[in-house]
Amino acid sequence: EWWFGISPEGFGSVAMILNFIVSIVVLKFTKEPPQHVQEIVENIRIPSSPGDAINH
Fold first, then answer.
1. Is the pTM of this model over 0.70?
2. Alpha helices in the chain, H assignment, sequence order
3. What total of structural domains would you count in the chain?
4. By residue range, what is the domain housing residue 31?
5. Is residue 34 part of a domain?
6. pLDDT digits (tens, 9 = 90+) for 10-56
7. How many angstroms separate the first and last alpha carbons of the chain?
8. What's the pLDDT score for residue 29?
């Protein structure tokens, strides 16, 4: 079933472009998170104290 004269395959491309535009608009209108939040996000990927490997 076609929407607004666009095939289902083509509509995915249109939706992808629209999503990209909305993401940029939201990025421009929201303020940057505080520094401590940015540090949490950066450090969450680093284990704080990795223990010894365990047998599985």
1. no
2. 8-29, 35-43
3. 1
4. 8-43
5. yes
6. 888 888 999 999 999 999 999 999 999 998 888 887 766 767 777 76
7. 51
8. 95
